[in-house]
Amino acid sequence: MSEETSIVQGVEALPADRYIDRELSWLAFNQRVLELAEDATVPLLERANFLAIFASNLDEFFMVRVAGLKRRIVTGLAVPTNVGRAPTDVLADINRVAYELQLRHATCFKEQVQPKLAEAGIRIVEWSELDSADREILTNYYEHNIYPVLMPLAVDPAHPFPYISGRALNVSIRVFNPNTEKTEFARLKVPQMIPRYVRVDRRETEDDVRYIPLEALIANQLDGLFPGMQVLDHHVFRVTRNEDMEIEEDETENLIQALEKELLRRRFGPPIRLEISDDMDEATLDLLVREFDIDAEQVYTLPAPLDLSGLFALARIPRPDLKFAPHIPVTHPKFRTNSPSDKPDTFAAIARREVLVHHPYESFATSVQAFLEQAATDPDVLAIKQTLYRTSGDSPIVAALIKAAEAGKQVLALVEVKARFDEEANISWARKLEQAGVHVVYGMVGLKTHCKLVQVIRDEGDRLAHYCHIGTGNYNPKTSRIYEDFGLFTSSPDVGRDVTKLFNVLSGYAIETDYDRLLVAPLQLRQGLLDRIAREADNARAGLPSGIKLKANSMVDEAIIDALYVASQAGVPIEVWVRGICSIRAGVPGLSETIQVRSVLGRYLEHSRIYAFENAGSREIFIGSADLMHRNLDRRIEVLVQLTDREHLARIDRFFEFAFSDEVSSWRMLADGTWQRRIVNERGDLLPDLQDLVMNDRTQARSRRPR
Questions:
Q1: Where along the chain is ATP bound (predicted)?
Q2: Biggest alpha carbon distance in the chain?
């Protein structure tokens, strides 16, 4: 960040404690996920799913955020914190809060969700609860499906302590050797390719089923793994490793090779957290702590079962009575056809008027996917350019690009192979694109390409038309069903020129900062947002209409936050809608009295980014890929596009009205930085869910005639 863009006028008067610690704010977000699991009004299998999401989220938090913080402390590198506290103190707070949340998480499962599942006919049982017939069935299953793949590893002078992979479930075993009269230690990895919960019953009915945890089934068959030995005890543990990646791109000529080396290194990252069952003996614990070389505060003693991300499997049980009522995505009115079997002419629809699509309420398949599939087969289409951050190898998006290349069209795919935890998959299907004749570009040195862009060049006789899609989410049909995102389709010549310039930057050596309807990071977007926030403050001081509405996944950038504080002190009404990390403080007298902060969590992951400015009555609203974080504004290629259609502006306004209404369920930030959930009104009535309201709104729009 340059000195000019980092300075906000009036910032010197702001208090030093004006930021909420970003890591603790993330833990507060995951606590909100946990509160959904604790909510008795949420359908039961959805509660189990939120327990699994909490566990998966926390794993990634430790693998990336905590790992990065600890690595910097250990190596003596500067540790950026936005709260002015020692990094070691921040790390201690993280471990304390995370441990408290994990205990609460385990309690929620054991005391709330598991008993309710049993009442509903889904029972998770222990070996001791089974009769001889059940045990015979499971023993037979074990011998044929589990025993052959088990690999017990001894630990003794001839067998060093084995490598323990991150996030794998393990059983520690102590056995007594009658020949040597010594107690020995062994480790057994619970196979990850076998279902975590093994079904006891083989009946077809789903309304009365029993499951046993895989590790419990294995634990009751240990004698057969150690014949001639006496099994003394066994305990479950798992370790989380540092899986963050740092690639020195300026020191390598081949990004793919460097990335593949880093992926290999990731498997052997140092341990960050050790989770153990609360019945583990001291001797085993001492051995693990010594071998992993970790501190006592990194040990999390928890009741079994460990790793509740395994509940994802139970959440898929076909019991619609225990799940959210289904939402059926509708086709956007502009893309509707007379018959369901007809394919829409997306080019004709976009040429008539810009189209704003909202997923998953409106179908990805009949909009984005249909647009690309039509482009792949249309003989008048000359070229397709697309950025790809996260998708899947079997994706119809990838298939459409391959079909277009095979048809002789010019196809450019900018594949961001550094998308965290999707690196290996991205390399694989990017090579498939290359083999089909697609021009594949692997991002830019030093920058991640995170923007969501498609451009289609079509020969329409007297001109080359540019059809563009600019979105807030990935081109992934699977996640489009659970991630909330917006996308704009346009044939605007201004946007077409902007996107052409940007693709020249991405695939060539161009340096471009002159755009009409786009704000592009890292050279333009930050200052563009700061200028607009400052303009709202000036308008408020002049008595002109002012207001700022922001929706993002995360808000931690200090310069943006400071600008919002200054605007609030000028009297600008500010609404911040954030899903995850939020370092801004809301409603603090003298600092942020006009700032409201809301968070919405539910069946869909709120993923869209929206930036709206009142601008003295001439409103500006942008949507795009950028969150309010240093990495998005300074170290990524990000794009925001300005919405200009009055109908689209009104639609965004309505979206915010839902989120900030006192008659809609949400979390609101209090002045002390804590979050308060509001799910009932003053009369005690359950408040409606925002995502249900939006789905109903889109369903009603389906009956309106397109204009």
A1: 57, 483, 579, 607
A2: 92
- Overall CATH class of domain 44-322: alpha beta
Segment 101-146, tens digit of pLDDT: 999 999 999 999 999 999 999 999 999 999 999 999 999 999 999 9
Report d(CA 440, CA 437) in Å as an integer.
Answer: 9
Q: Does domain 3-19+519-701 have CATH number 3.30.470.20?
A: no
Mean pLDDT of the chain: 88
Contacts 24+ apart (CB under 8 A), 260-265: 260/427, 263/423, 263/424
User: What pLDDT score does 429 carry?
Assistant: 72
Distances, alpha carbon 113 to alpha carbons 124, 316, 426, 595, in Å: 11, 15, 37, 37
DSSP-assigned letter for residue 61:
I
CA neighbor of 211 nearest in space, from 221, 201, 225, 226: 201
Phi, psi of 163 (to 5 degrees): -70, 130
**Rounded to an integer, what distance in angstroms lies between the CA atom of residue 324 and that of residue 547?**
36
- Both tokens of 368, joined, read 């984005």
| Six-digit token string for 578 | 């954030």
442 is in an annotated binding site: no
CA gap 347, 661 in Å, rounded: 37
Catalytic residues: 450
Backbone angles phi, psi at 440, to 5 degrees: -105, 130
Nearest-angstrom CA–CA distance, 137 and 134: 5
607 is in an annotated binding site: yes
Which two tokens mark 279?
């019945």
Distance CA 616, CA 543 (A): 9
- Give 185-236 pLDDT, tens digit per residue: 999 999 999 999 999 987 667 778 999 999 999 999 999 898 888 999 999 9
Residue pointed to by tokens 């709260």: 83
333-511 and 3-19+519-701 share a CATH fold: yes
- Looking at residue 117, the DSSP 8-state letter turns out to be H
Beta bridge partners of 597: 576
- What is the rounded (10 degree) CA torsion for 121, 126, 127, 132? -20
105 annotated as a binding-site residue? no
Instruction: State the Cα–Cα distance between residues 271 and 290, nearest whole angstrom.
Output: 12
pLDDT band at 337; cut points 50, 70, 90: confident
636 has binding-site annotation: no
Q: Where are the domains of the chain?
A: 3-19+519-701, 44-322, 333-511
Name the β-bridge partners of 447: 444
Query: What number is the average pLDDT over the span 239-255?
Result: 60
Closest residue by Cα to residue 304 from 107, 500, 577, 491: 107
CATH, domain range 333-511: 3.30.870.10
Question: What's the rounded Cα separation, in Å, for the pair 5 and 43?
Answer: 47
- Give the C-alpha separation, 610 to 550, whole Å: 6
Residue 357: which of 493, 471, 452 has the closest Cα?
471
What is the per-residue pLDDT across 599-616, written as a single tens digit (0 to 9) for each? 999 999 999 999 999 999
Structure token digits, residue 118: 């049993």
The CA distance from 234 to 230, in Å, is 12
Q: Residue 8: which of 448, 490, 501, 530 has the closest Cα?
A: 530
Pairing of strands 620-624, 609-613: antiparallel
